[in-house]
Amino acid sequence: MRKTIAIAVLLVSVYALTAQQEITDPLATEKWNPVPVVVTPGEGTQPPSDAIILLGKDNDLSMWESTKGGKVKWDFDNGTLTVKKNTGGIRTRNYFGDCQLHVEWRTPETVSGEGQGRGNSGIFLMERYEVQVLDSYHNRTYSNGQAASIYKQHIPLVNACRPPGVWQTYDIIWKAPSFHDDGSLKSPATITVLHNGVLVQNHVEIKGTTSFIGIHTYKHHPERLPIMLQDHGNPVSYRNIWIREL
Ligand code: MG
After folding, report:
1. How far, in Å, is the centroid of ligand 1 from the Cα of 236?
2. What are the pLDDT digits (tens) for 55-95?
3. Residue 4 has what pLDDT?
4. Spacing, Cα 129 to ligand 1 middle (Å)
């Protein structure tokens, strides 16, 4: 028996070695297809040429609606959109699945409140998975609820927060969850987040719908859903939001 195994191992090794040696032409490992589509990168904070502009410099809110239905009731001035307390969140009219999302946000220069009550908003992928927006500049709260946390799921790797009143960026790579026909989870969502260019969430697994209380669980939903921005009662501002579908 042992002899048979030894011979088998030897044969496999010889075969592997032969297979390795067979490729002598460097051209054999070149791949010419598919040809990547040409995308012109944006200058500075400008979007790349293939991005969908969700919030640009012009005063155009046509991509958004209130989560309470109808028009957005937040303050909008010169491309800067600011949460208006108690008017509800806003969401994109278009639905998105896997994507690269760029968002610029700013917490109020005049600091008021503390912990979760200071500059709180949030970016909800698919209307249910929150990347926390918070003034986490010298403002302690639970770590899995500070800026750039996946709310109550993942603590950011570092705190890359800029001071209140200063514009900040999130660059998010989102892979949507998938579900079996019976509604059970096939594969969880994953997310990567850069906060002001610093990696803060490194391809982490989403555990389920964001919830304030209790354990996060998945509930079957469509492949594409809106992006939502949260009204948490603080006048957090947004500008220059664009998305690339993946
Ligand atoms: Mg929030």
Report:
1. 11
2. 998 879 999 999 999 999 999 998 999 999 999 999 999 99
3. 59
4. 11
CA distance 144 to 29: 45
Model pLDDT, residue 72: 97
Residues with CB under 5 A from ligand 1 (ion): 120, 122, 232
Give residue 15's pLDDT band: very low, low, confident or very high (50, 70, 90).
low
Domain residues for the domain of 159 are 52-245
Enter the pTM of the model.
0.90
Torsion of the alpha carbons at 10, 14, 20 and 22, rounded to the nearest 10: -160
**Does a structural domain hold residue 11?**
no
Give which of 129, 58, 121 is closest to 90, Cα–Cα.
Answer: 121
The total domain count for the chain is: 1
Q: What is the CATH number of the domain that holds 65?
A: 2.60.120.560
For residue 143, the CA-to-ligand 1 centroid distance in Å is 13
Residues in Cβ contact with 110 at an 8 Å cutoff, skipping those fewer than 6 apart: 164, 165
User: Position of tokens 């991509």?
Assistant: 63
Question: What's the 218 CA to ligand 1 centre distance in angstroms?
Answer: 19
CA of 178 to the centre of ligand 1 (A): 25
